[in-house]
Amino acid sequence: MDRQFAAMQHASVDLLVIGGGIYGAWTAYDAALRGYRVALVDKTDWAAGTSSASSKLIHGGLRYLEHFNFGLVRHGLAERATLTRIAPHAVDPIRFVIPKYEGDRVASWKMRIGLALYDLLAGRGQPVAPHDRFDALELRDSFPYLSTEGLIGGFSYGDCQEDDARVTLEVVAAAQRAGAMVANHTAVSEVLYMGDRVIGARIEDRLGGGTGQIRARLTVNAAGPWAPDLAGGRSVVGDYKLIKGVHLMMPELPGPKDAFLLTARSDGRVFFVIPWYDHTIIGTTESDYQGDPKDLAVYEDEAEYLLDEANRALRQANWRREDIRGCFAGVRTLMGGSDGSLSAVSRDFMVRKAKPGLWMPIGGKYTTARGDAESIVDMARAELGPARGTRRTDQQPLAWAPSGDVGQWRAEAEADARALGVDERAAAWLVKRHGTQTEAVLDMVRTEPSLAMRLHEQCPFIRAEVAYAARHEMARSLVDVLRRRLPVMLMLAPDQELARNAAHLMAPELDWDDTTIEAQCDAALALWPGISPRN
Hints:
single chain; Helicase, Ruva Protein, domain 3; Glycerol-3-phosphate dehydrogenase/oxidase
C-alpha cells in the first residue's frame, strides 16, 4: 500500500470520497472496480473513527427482528454470506449462546420463533450452523461460570466475527489495487464550488504540510459523525442522530470460545459477550450523544453498567474494575431527529444529497456497508455516466484473500509461522489478520528472527507486524499501529515501555529520530483509551 498524496495534489477525478471508514472504503473500491477515476482521503487514518469501534461482528442483527425490521436483517444476512465468501481469511463463523431465565423479557417461545425466522431470512448456503436449543443441564456443563439461578435452558445461533479496522484497511488496499488514489492523514480544508455546485476540495497533507486540490464530478462525504462539518452544518444535512456505544475488553473466559447474547436485568437491553484475540469484549451500551465526536470517552458509570450486567449473568467470572484490560467508544450517525426512543431510531441506510455534487451517506451498519456502497455507485451513474468496467465487489476476492482450499492454506501458513518461532496463538491470529500477506510479514522474521517475539505477552501480535505496518500498510504514526493495525491500545492499560518499543520498530521504516520517537510515544499515551469520570 502506497500513500498517494502527491499523485492527487492536482488530480481531476470522477469521484472524491471523503472519509476512510468502512463506507468510504467500500464506495471507493466499488467505483474504482467499475472504471471510474477515484480519490479517497481521510484526515487521520483508515477506520480511525466509528469503523474501529464496532462490536467486531458481521451479522444480520438478531435484535432488529424485535422491531420487525425484516429488510435490514435480510440485507445483513445476505452481506454476511458475501463477506465470508470474498474474505474467508478475515471473517469467521462464531456461535452465540442465549441462556434463558425465568421471567426473561422475551419468552422462550418468542425466541425460538425469532431464531427460526433468522435462519429463514438467511436462506440456504449460509456459512454458519442453524439455531439449536439447550436444556439447563447442558448449559451448566458447557459454561460453568453461567449464573444458574432461574436458568431454564437456552438457544444457540450462528453469526460471524472480524477485526473491523483490519477489514477496512484491506478494503482500502483493494480500492488502490483497482486504481483508486488513496491517502490517509489528508485533511479537506475547503470544499470547492462552481456556483452552488460542489466540484471537489482543497486538501492538506497533515504529515508533510503540502496542499493541493482535487477536482471531482461528484463528492461523497462519508466522514460519519464528522460529515456535517464538511457539508455545511446540521441544517444542510437534515435530521440525524448520534448514537454512542461503549465496549470493555476483559480477560479471556475459560471453556468453549462461544459468544453470548445476554439481556441486562436493569433495563432489558441486549448486549454481547464475545471472545476476541484471546480476550473478551463486553458491549455495547446505547445512548444519545450530543457532544463533539472528538471528545468521545468511556465514563465510569458506563463501565460499571457493563460490568454489573455481565457479572449477573457470568457469576463465576466475578470481574472487577481492575480486571478491565481496555475499553473503547464509538458513535454512529443514524436517521432521525432528537425525539423518540433509541430503539425506534432507524438503522436503515440512505444517501442525502446535501448540496449539488455533494452526497452524504447516513445510517446503515458495518456489515451492510459493501452493499450500501454498491447502491451509492449505482446512484452515481446519473452524475458520472456509464461505468467503464463491469467488475463488482461481491464477485472479487478481497485484496488479501487466499484462493483454493482455505483450510489447507491456513494450516500451512500457520505452520510456516510456527517454524520461524511464532507462538501458536500468535501464528493463528497473524494468518487471519494478514491473509496472503502473511508470507511478506514472515519474510521480515526470516531476516531478523527476533521479530517473531510478541510485542507484549498479553497480546497475540508479533514485533514484525509493527515494522510491516510502517513499511507496507500506510501506518504513519504510533497510534496508527497500536490502535488500528494492531488493537493493542484496546487490550492494555497505557504502557510507556511498550509504546517506546513499538516506536523503535517503526523508526527505521519512517526515518524517525529520537525526538520524533519521544513525540510519537507522548501522542500515543495521550490518546490511549481510558475510563473517565463524568464532569
